[in-house]
Amino acid sequence: MARLSVNINKIATLRNSRGGNNPDVLQAALACERFGAQGITVHPRPDERHIRYQDVYDLKSALTTELNIEGNCREEKFVRLVLDTQPAQVTLVPDEPGQITSNHGWDTIKHSTYLHDICALFKGEGIRVSIFVDPHPEMIAAAAETGTDRVELYTEGYAKEFLNDPAKAIALYAEAAKVAQQIGVGLNAGHDLDLHNLPYFVQHIPGLLEVSIGHALISDALYLGLEETIKRYLAASSS
Ligand SMILES: CC(=O)[C@@H](O)[C@H](O)COP(=O)(O)O
Ligand SMILES: NCC(=O)COP(=O)(O)O
Fold it and tell me: Are 210 and 219 in contact (CB under 8 A)?
């Protein structure tokens, strides 16, 4: 069973499209919690096109479940935000400026010294650290050397291939999960997970601790309503 952290970026995208406060990001996050979400994920980007830095401060003081802040830790503003708000978890993502969405994990071998130092900074504050990685055993092994608590497997590749061949889609991820378990690094996953591909992923990745899901979940909520959608994702993540 994996815990479900709802990524609310897309709610902020909708709000920002008109400049007012509709939909209200905080109210939506609290509703997610009320409907059973076990955490809330935000991924602020430097242009604040969806979640704004101020949203994160507001969320932190109101949420009762785990807050997970994802983002580019090479941005000074991001590091300050994390240290100020002290979330339960920070997920380090190697975004480039101007990226539409995240599209790769860290090269944990090349950036091992940097990642070691930034993990130490956050862990020293009592914040759990997760590093966003592609599903390659050597990246997971090197991530473990940085002192990170967890890795988050970047699942876009799985989601794409799942439509053609689920067994082929999961193979790399199952191997990566085995390595993470052997070396004692916790395992999260996210990106493009949805109601179709999530049950198979959870069933084939033992020890999966958390999935963070935004785009598909918020889209499904347009048809099903937020409460019913979260109920379905909770069932899928514990299948
Ligand atoms: C790291 C990751 O996969 C997610 O945080 C995802 O990229 C969401 O970010 P956007 O909402 O900006 O697409
Ligand atoms: N870490 C992944 C995440 O938070 C949400 O990704 P997506 O479901 O919006 O693709």
Answer: no
ipTM of the predicted assembly exceeds 0.85: yes
Q: Is 204 exposed, middle or buried (0-12, 13-18, 19+ CB in 10 A)?
A: middle
Print the domain residue range for 40.
3-237
Q: One of 136, 152, 191, 210 is an active-site residue; which one? A: 191
**Domain containing residue 57: CATH number:** 3.20.20.70
What is the total count of domains within the chain?
1
Ligand closest to Cα of 93 equals 1
Is it the case that residue 96 has pLDDT exceeding 90? no
> Which residue, chain included where needed, has tokens 């958390």?
210
pLDDT at 239 over 90: no
**Ligand closest to CA 154:** 1
The number of angstroms, rounded, from the C-alpha of 61 to the middle of its chain's C-alpha atoms is 20
Q: What is the pTM of this model?
A: 0.97
